[in-house]
Amino acid sequence: MLKVAIGLTIAIVFGALGDIFMSRGMRENGEVIFHGLADVLKVARLVFSRPLVLLGVLSMAIYFGAYVAVLQWVDVSVANPLTALSYLIATVYAVLIMREKVGLKRGGGIVLIVLGAILVGLSS
Fold this sequence. Notes:
The protein is mainly alpha-helical. It has one domain (2-123). The chain contains six helices and no strands. The termini are close together. The relative contact order is 0.16.
């Protein structure tokens, strides 16, 4: 059971970090506009030249590796909801560091997600 807890912790933390890094990296880019298919490579070069976006991709790769490992040991109906705890980490970071506003409805939704993840975790 310890390996499941470690794997899920890695997945949760790196999933949140991936979202945070990619969000910050994409905000550095400014608006991304596609006028046609020819712009796809130009935009991809712009996006993937940002260090924070690359850190986000790396973090998501670590998340994926940990998540795949966890799926060897527990049912997907347990693993998937538990990784939703990364929403709490990302939201706390967004509020405290990025100064995002989280209203009552959004905050309530995140509380429901966390409570649901806890219920799923307790059921296994």
